[in-house]
Description:
This protein is mainly beta. The protein has no helices and four strands. It holds the Pfam family DUF2196.
Amino acid sequence: MNGQVRADIRAGLEVDIVLKQDQATGKLTHGVVKDILTNSPRHPHGIKVRLADGQVGRVKHIT
């Protein structure tokens, strides 16, 4: 799953996200979802989440 649909994402899932500073390179960061920050049901660049370690980024893959 590509992380563009909010209903597919919930706390506790393992995901790969792109951090704001890594958007140019596309470097992925792996972690566990703590909070979902995007309110809309879909987002073309990925749903924004906060990981358990506090990092914030947009979901690119749900693992």
